[in-house]
Amino acid sequence: MARITFEHIDKIYDNGFQAVFDFNLEIAHGEFVVFVGPSGCGKSTMMRIVAGLEDATRGDISFDGARVNGKSPKARDVAMVFQSYALYPHLDAYGNMAFALTLDGCDEDYIERRVAETADILGMRPYLKRKPRELSGGQCQRVAVGRAIIRRPKVFLMDEPLSNLDAKQRVTMRSEIIEIHRKTGATTVYVTHDQVEAMTMADRIVVMRDGRIRQVGTPRELYFRPADKFVAGFIGDPPMNFIPCAAAKGGVILKGSDGVLKLPARFAGALAKREGGEITLGFRPEAARFGGGQKAGGGVAFEARAQVLELFGDSVSIFAEIGGHSVILKTDPDHMPEENETVKFTVPADGIYLFESGQNEASIEA
Ligand code: ATP
Questions:
Q1: Residue 13 C-alpha to ligand 1 middle, in angstroms?
Q2: d(CA 199, CA 194)
Q3: Residue 18 contacts by C-beta under 8 Å, 6 or more apart in sequence?
Q4: Which residue's CA is minimally distant from atom 18 of ligand 1?
Q5: What is the mean pLDDT of residues 256-263?
Q6: What CATH code is carried by the domain that includes residue 72?
Q7: Which of 78, 189, 191, 335 has its CA 20 to 30 A from that of 263?
Q8: How remote is the CA of residue 144 from the centroid of ligand 1, in Å?
Q9: CA pair distance 24, 228, nearest whole angstrom
Q10: Residue 364 lies in a domain
Q11: Over the stretch 145-164, which tens digit does the pLDDT of each residue have?
C-alpha cells in the first residue's frame, strides 16, 4: 500500500499539446480513487504518469513521501490492468497469472500457492487450465486482474478495465473488483468515463475536464454538493435538469415567462446580489415529487408539459417541457401522466441548485 501525492503536475506532449494543468491530489493508503471525465479530459494521461509510463512535464509525484518522477513502473511497484486484457494467448490462466512471479525467479511451490490464493479470490480455480481463447470476456478480465494482484503491488492501476464486457458482466465485475480491493487493501487508481462505475466503486472521485480537476469528493459529496454545473450534469443518470433564468427578488424568472418563481429562503442573499443577472436553476430528475403536499417545507412548485414517456417497470421517465426548456422527470408508474398532459410537481427545498452563468458556472452556495 502506498500514499500517492501529486503536486502541481502539468503534462505537455511533444507536439506542444497540454493535456494536464496543475493537478494536485493526495490519495491515502488503501484508498480506491476513481478518475472520471469525458473522453480526452486527461485521465489516462494521469494514470500513465502514476504508472511511470509517461513523465510529468512539471511537478512532482511521490509514493509515501518519496519522489518517484523518472522511476520505471517496476521500481515504483505498480501493477496495471488495461481495457484490452493483453493476456499471453499461448499460456493458460495459470501461466498468465504466474508469469510475473516466474520472471522474478520465485520457486514453484510458492508460485503454486499464490496462484491458488489469487484464483480463489477471483473464483477462477476451475478455469486455470484454460487458454484465453477458451475463456469468456469476464473470465479473461479476471485473469488480467489476477496477474496484477498476484504480485501484491503497492499501487494497483486500472484503465477502463470493464469496457470490453457486456452490461451484465460489467455489473458483476464491478462488485468483484470492490471485493478484491477489500481483500487486498491495495491503493487503487481506477480510470473510467462511466459515472455509474465511479459512483458505485469509489471511496473518492476525481472529476476531470479539459485537463483540469473540477472536483474531488466522495460519491455523496459530488451528488449532493456539486462544485459546478459540469459536475452536476456529469454525475447522476439521467443528468440534472438545467433551466436558464434571470435572478429576481426572492426567486428567478424563467426565460419566456414573466412571473417570479419563488426559491427557498436560503438563496435570498445570493439572488439579491445578482438581481437581473443570468443564472441557471438546477434540479435532479429524481427530485420531482408528484401528488402534492410537498410545498409546505419550502419546496418549489413547477408545471411542465409531458411530451414523451419511458416506462421502466419500477419507474417512469417523463421527458417534459418547462417554458420551452426540456427537462426529464423521474417518478413511479402510479404518477405516469398522458402524453401532452400538463403535470404539476414539487422539488423539495434541498433539491434546488443555482449555478453562475458564464465561464466556470460555479455552484452558488447558499
Ligand atoms: P479517453 O477516455 O478517450 O481515453 P482520456 O481522458 O483518457 O480520454 P487522455 O488519453 O489522457 O484522455 O488524453 C488527453 C488529451 O491528450 C487528449 O486530447 C489526447 O488527444 C491528448 N494526447 C494523448 N496522448 C498524446 C500524445 N502522445 N501526444 C499528443 N497528445 C496526446
A1: 9
A2: 9
A3: 10, 11, 12, 211
A4: 40
A5: 85
A6: 3.40.50.300
A7: 335
A8: 24
A9: 18
A10: no
A11: 889 888 888 899 999 888 87
